[in-house]
Design a protein that fits this description.
This protein is α/β, with parallel strands linked by helices and 319 residues long. Helix content is 41%, strand content 19%. The chain has 2 domains: 166 residues, D-Maltodextrin-Binding Protein, domain 2, CATH 3.40.190.150; 115 residues, 3-Layer(aba) Sandwich (D-Maltodextrin-Binding Protein, domain 2), CATH 3.40.190. Strands 2-1-3-10-4-11 form a 6-stranded mixed sheet, sandwiched between helices. The chain has a 3-stranded antiparallel sheet with strand order 8-5-9. The protein is globular and about 65 Å long.
Length: 319
Amino acid sequence: MKRFLPFLLLVWVCAALGQAYPSRPVTIVNGFPPGGTTDAAVRILASKLAERMGQAVVVENRPGATGMIAAAGVARAAPDGYTLLFGVAANLAVGPATLKKPPYEPSTAFTPIGEMARGPYIWMVRADHPAADMTQFVAWTRANPGKAHYASPGQGSVHHLATEMLKQRTGAVITHVPYKGGSALAAALLGGEVQAMFESPGGYLGNIRGGKLRALGVTGPRRLAALPEVPTLDEQGIPGLHVNSWWGIVGPAGMAPEVVQRLNAEIARALADPELKGALEKQSIEPSPGTPEAFGAYIREEWERWRRFVSSSGIAVDQ
């Protein structure tokens, strides 16, 4: 028996090394509550990945601190490809940029795997608001100091910093009111608790087309196909305020290149699937597959951009 032990050990080692990824379930951690637009998209992605990779891909929601609790947990996980993060602008760039001591460095704590989608925000008011465009809205805030409030899903969110950037560039006088979750934002605006906010357009198209809300401007460089009548901020004399909602998948730093490439390829195939592609397009956010290197470069660019803005504006959020 002893003479067979080296052979058996060699067989076991070769089998272990040659074991294809994934050999067990994969978890994608989402730092936001279940039921929202981001959650729906990542669950469709998970189901498509599971179909192609032959293993369960589970979505685990760990909401809190604009997604940073989830991100910090994934950054500490083993870099074996079995714990991944649904990374977004809030937890891979904007949120950490607002902290004096962020729990992780976005550009080094993660392995970029692949971008999923990218799209602009729209500035919205209730349909009965007197402003018909951004110039009129800014003038209204100045004429009504103390009466103008805007909603965001929390301190340090993209919505929060984008509006502070808008205030800085236009002189708008408007107070921040943070909420928890997208449904709370919609209720606050529709109910008149706040007068305006930035948000991704998808979940609000029904209320805009139904005459309950009015979109005044788009943060992207071009108008939205879903709202062709709404001008960009550039067109209204507020140039360069190009703020995107962007989503992607990252893992802990140090993941094996072959695992990253496998996941990147499967994400690209999933984004071409009509079900996922359609779900994204309904939110007016476009599939944006690309290389891990390109996604990593974009994360670094956004992280540095928001760090510079926070430093110049004096915004800080201690958490």
